[in-house]
Design goal:
Blueprint: H1 2-10, H2 38-53, H3 67-76, E1 87-97, E2 100-108, E3 113-123, E4 126-134
Antiparallel strand pairs: 1-2, 2-3, 3-4
């Protein structure tokens, strides 16, 4: 049901919110879309989970993150390390405001499931992940010997 709420909120026509000027062109002339589909949002959550697992470098998603979110992602990269590639098991999508999307996800890391939350906003003519939260406080540390 939450996916339908996001789809409805992000694809609302002019009858639900005031009409805005079109977004400026990106290099190459293409325009940034003002809405994000549930498919784009869940794919982004999967990519962030791969960074958290250490399967993808954080630099690959740098253009999609605010400075603060990128620094947090770098600090936590590798915290979801597992024997196989992490898999997005479930995602709940919400849109608290017209230019904001939130993704709450459960990531399957093999023997354990992990939590991930993302806040994605439309700012400065592009979509940007401005905040992320995980169920860990920092990168995974090696175990001490003798335990």
């Amino acid at each position: 049901m939450a996916g339908h709420q996001l789809t409805a909120a992000l694809s609302a026509g002019p009858h639900r919110r005031p009409r805005r000027a079109p977004a400026p062109a990106r290099p190459g002339g293409a325009r940034y879309p003002r809405t994000r589909s549930p498919r784009h949002l869940t794919a982004f959550a999967q990519v962030v989970a791969e960074v958290l697992a250490g399967d993808r470098p954080a630099g690959q998603v740098r253009p999609l993150l605010s400075r603060r979110a990128y620094e947090l992602l770098q600090r936590r990269a590798g915290a979801y390390a597992c024997a196989r590639r992490p898999r997005l098991r479930r995602a709940v999508l919400t849109s608290p405001e017209s230019d904001v999307a939130e993704v709450t996800a459960v990531i399957d890391c093999g023997s354990r499931c992990r939590a991930l939350a993302l806040r994605i906003t439309y700012a400065e003519h592009a979509w940007l992940c401005t905040h992320l939260e995980t169920d860990v406080c920092g990168p995974r540390r090696g175990r001490r010997s003798g335990r």
